[in-house]
Amino acid sequence: MTSRSSSPISLRDIVYNEAGKNYSVPPHIHQHYQWYCLLHGGVDTVIENKTFSLNPEESVLIPPGVLRSPRSRDKAPRYLHAVFENHRLNLDNLPGKILPFPQDLRPDLTALVKELIYPGTNTNELVEVLLIRLLIGLERSQRTNDKPNHISTLNYLSQDEIVEQIEAYMQRNLHRNINRSQLADIFHHSPSHLARVFKQTTGKTLTERLIEIRILRAKQLLLESTLSVSEISLQIGYTSFSHFSKIFRNKVGVSPGDYRRFQGNTWGIKLNST
To answer: What are phi and psi of 62, to 5 degrees?
Structure first.
């Protein structure tokens, strides 16, 4: 599999594999970077005479030209490995250690595996984008973990920057179940601390702002797409159509269907109903 020269990496090979209990690969090298991620079971990978014992949702990044040899441990493993040339990504902080997956990257890992098992339109492009996202996320996670534990992330970022990152995460993940505890885990704060910082900066609670962003997105989709109202409900994170309709009416003053029918002219809706 090859990649465009404009990409920060050139993907040479990527494989999802379900191996047997006797899985063992003789010592070998690659001319490019290899990212090896364990999804199930246990694997001991020897890299330059040092053994890395991987558990599910842990990975290693192996630099070019380094001798490596993975073998199963206990259960039959399922794993993912990618071989790629690196052109522009900063990966200096990743080799030589086990890389656990942060919670916010796990959906992207799942999406990558599904795309490899059930490829569709533009699979090559999507696989490359997901791999780049995972590598960048792992590198950022390691930099966060390498900072002294007794210093809060707020000492590195202003409150405005923290809020900006939270809102960006909300925007990218409206279709998912987002709650205060999950955000606290992702941004490395206690739930109460994160909620207090957000409220002090924006004047709104995390829940209030999340609903606001979802309703704004719903308005956009109602006017600019042909998706049904129920499909829009799912896309912005409401599994219950009736719950979405109730919240939309409460915030906008009209039902989602009427909002679409009158092209967002809520005054026209109100005048028409009198």
So the answer is: -110, 125
Residue in 90, 224, 81, 107 with CA at minimum distance from that of residue 177 = 107
Pick the most confident of 9-18, 104-113, 264-273. 9-18
The two tokens of residue 15 are: 């494989």
Show the DSSP H helices in the chain as ranges. 106-117, 123-146, 159-172, 180-187, 191-202, 206-224, 229-235, 241-252, 256-261, 266-273
Average pLDDT, stretch 41-60?
93
- Counting residues of the chain whose pLDDT is more than 90, the rounded percentage is 57
- CATH dotted code for 208-273: 1.10.10.60
Which H/E stretch holds residue 58? strand 58-62
Distance, CA of 108 to CA of 103 (rounded, Å): 10
Range 82-93 average pLDDT? 94
pLDDT over 70 percentage in the chain:
89
Contact 204, 212 (CB under 8 A): yes
Task: Tell how many helices (H) and how many strands (E) occur in the chain.
Answer: 10, 8
The structure tokens 């601390």 sit at: 193
Fold of 9-146: Jelly Rolls (2.60.120)
